[in-house]
Structures are given as structure tokens and as C-alpha cells.
Please model this.
Amino acid sequence: TVGQPLAAHGLRSEEDVERRLVEVLKATPGLVVVFASGQNVDRAASVYGAALAAGRQLVLDAYQAYVLLTLKDICAGLPQFDSPSVRVKFTRRHVQKLIAAGLFPLACRMSGAGQRKVTTEQMAADPGAFVYLARPNSATVALLERLIKTAQLTVVWSQWSGYLEKAGPVPAFLAKHAIEPLLV
Model:
């Protein structure tokens, strides 16, 4: 990460990150939310590998699914919306943007006739079945505010730790609910 010392999260490699995530996923009964940049494809691949190893489904938002789809031909091994154990969480805004870009058929493919799409209710009903690769924005916080009412949340912060010290929806959410994120 630019401006951050090598291995600032205490781990030496992306393989170490994946191993640590497997430990967290296996030890955590509830929903694990991993905050990372939507463009950090190496981290997306690590979270996916950890999800598979722990028997969980990886939840991506439509933006992340689109980024990973766009890069699939130049970055082998990236999780795709139609990969095993991958689900897509849509927001109204994502669908509106895909429609505006003329990509509604892609949104339909990402949904897989509803088989790949995951709803908030599904995540709340069986939170331990999922790991949500989240982006730190207000839409994610709105989802987490709904989920925290019924699900135990474990938050993994997997990007520059300085962002946690800045004002924003995620630091405010964490403080409000007294959640101490794991740094991975």
C-alpha cells in the first residue's frame, strides 16, 4: 500500500494474509466483514481463498464484481461473480449505474436468476455462512446497521490503518457499536 511500510499489518506476504483470514473465518461464528479497497485484486483473491478454505461464501458488491470481471483476462485466479461460493450483494445505486451504462444484461448475469444474488435477509438468517468483502462507504454501513440487529459481526480492516483515524461512516459505525477491528 502506498505510503505504508511493507508488512504494516504484521504479515509478510499475501499468502500470510490469506492464512490469517482462514483462522479468523474458522474461529468466528458470525458474519465476517473484511474492509478492503475495491481495486485491491490481490486481497480479493486472498479473501476468496480464505472463504473457500473455511467453507464460507464470499459476498462481493456489484462494483467489485465488475472490477474483477474486467481484470479476469490479465489476472488469473480472481474470483468472479459466477465462481463457486461467490455471491453478489446489489444496492439500488449499483443497479442504477449498471443500467445507465447500458450494462443491465450484465447485472442480470451477476444475479444468476437470483441464484448468485444474496439478500440482506439471507445474510442475517445465516451470517456464519458468509464473508463480506466490503468497501468502506455509507452503503456498506447502512447494510451493517441492518445486520448488526440480528447478527454477530467481526470486522477485519484490511487496508491502510490511517483511514480508521479519519472521520467517515465506517469509523463512526465501529465506535457506535464498540467494535474493535482486526488488522489483517
Remarks:
- The chain is about 45% helix and 15% strand.
- The radius of gyration is 16 Å.
- The longest strand covers residues 31-35.
- Residues 65 and 128 are 22 Å apart (CA to CA).
